[in-house]
Every structure is written in structure tokens, then in C-alpha cells.
Amino acid sequence: MPDQAARLDAVLQRFQEQAARAAELKDQIANLRGHARNADGSVTVTVAPSGAVLGLQLSPQAMRRSHTALQQEILGAIRSATQQAAAALNQTVEPVLGERAEQFREAFNAHVEPLGPSAPPPASSLAAPGQPASPPQMPQPPQNTRNRTNPRAVEDDDFGGPILRRE
Fold first, then answer.
1. Which long-range contacts (CB under 8 A, 24 or more apart) does 113-118 make?
2. Which of 13, 34, 73, 92 is within CB 3.0–4.6 Å of 84 for a Cys-Cys bond?
3. How confident is the model over 30-69, as pLDDT tens digits?
4. What is the DSSP letter of 52?
5. What's the pLDDT score for residue 133?
6. Burial, 29: exposed, middle or buried (Cβ in 10 Å; 0-12, 13-18, 19+)?
């Protein structure tokens, strides 16, 4: 019996150490950021390791570009910042996870699609200059007529009278 208690204590101790390392790793990951600027410094981006944009600063110089050139500058800065954040993430998890770090990277990036140029939205979804954007049209819910009676088929002979009848 003392052997089992000692083994249980050892397992519990290892679990507590792993939980403490996991909590520390979680805090470190939460504070990771990637920062990048375009070549002339007019676009600055801050991202999380997931690629979520946390900050975007545009200088007046950036606003002198065409919309497509500005889009490409922003996307390029986001890519660079995301690569920087991913490298910092790898450096953070590698010592803790060891050989499991690759599994972590695969799981972490499983939902990420490559970021690249995209087609502009259809013109019909954009408001005319000087006009407010129209709210999106909400689809109408389907009418479920199952278990509903036709209101015209309901007899209204007894409506309006007393509930209890005396006869």
C-alpha cells in the first residue's frame, strides 16, 4: 500500500508541475505580439500569434496611395507581423512542449487560411458616395404551418360568451 501512495503522490506532483507550466505558458502566449511596418513606415500593424489584427496605424502618407496599393501595403505588414508573432510563439512553446511543439503548431494553425489579395466586394453591397450604407436585408423565417389550424377554419360560435354554460 505505501508503494501505491508514493506512486500516486509522484503522479500528482508531476501533474501539478505540468499544470503550473501550462498556466505560465498560457500567460506568455497571451502577451505575445507581432509588429511590422511597410517599407516607408506609413503602415504599422500589431497582431496576435493567431494573425488577429490588434492594431493598425496609417500615416497621412499612406492615405495618398490608391486603395489597392494601400490594401497591399496593409496585407504585407500583416503578413510580416504574423510571421514575427509565429516565430515568437515557436520560441515560447518549444522549450516547454519539446517534441510535442510540432503538434501544437499544427493544431494552432489548423484553421488559418493564407492571407492574400482578395476580390473587392460587389458594387451592389457598397453605398453610393455621400449616402449611408443600407442595412443588410434579414431573411424571413420559414413559415411552419404544421400543427397550426387555418384561422378561417376555426369556428367562432362560442367566443365572447361565458365559459361555463348553464342549460
1. 115/51, 115/75, 115/78, 115/79, 115/82, 116/75, 117/71, 117/72, 117/75
2. 34
3. 889 999 999 999 999 999 988 899 999 999 999 999 999 9
4. -
5. 58
6. middle
DSSP assignment of 115-166, as one string? Answer: P---PPPPGGGSPPTTSPPPPPPPPPPPP--TT---GGGS--SSTTS-SS--
- Other CB atoms within a 10 A radius of the CB of residue 24 amount to 11
Residue among 86, 74, 98, 77 at smallest CA distance from 32: 86
What CA–CA distance (Å, rounded) separates 109 from 48? 13
C-alpha grid cell, residue 86: 509565429
DSSP 109: T
Contact status, residue 36 vs residue 80, Cβ threshold 8 Å: yes
Q: Dihedral of CA 58/61/62/67: which sign?
A: positive
Q: How far apart are CA 74 and CA 81, in angstroms?
A: 11
- Using an 8 Å Cβ cutoff, are 90 and 34 in contact? no
On whether the CB atoms of residues 34 and 81 are closer than 8 A, the answer is yes
Residue 73 buriedness (CB in 10 A; 0-12 / 13-18 / 19+): buried
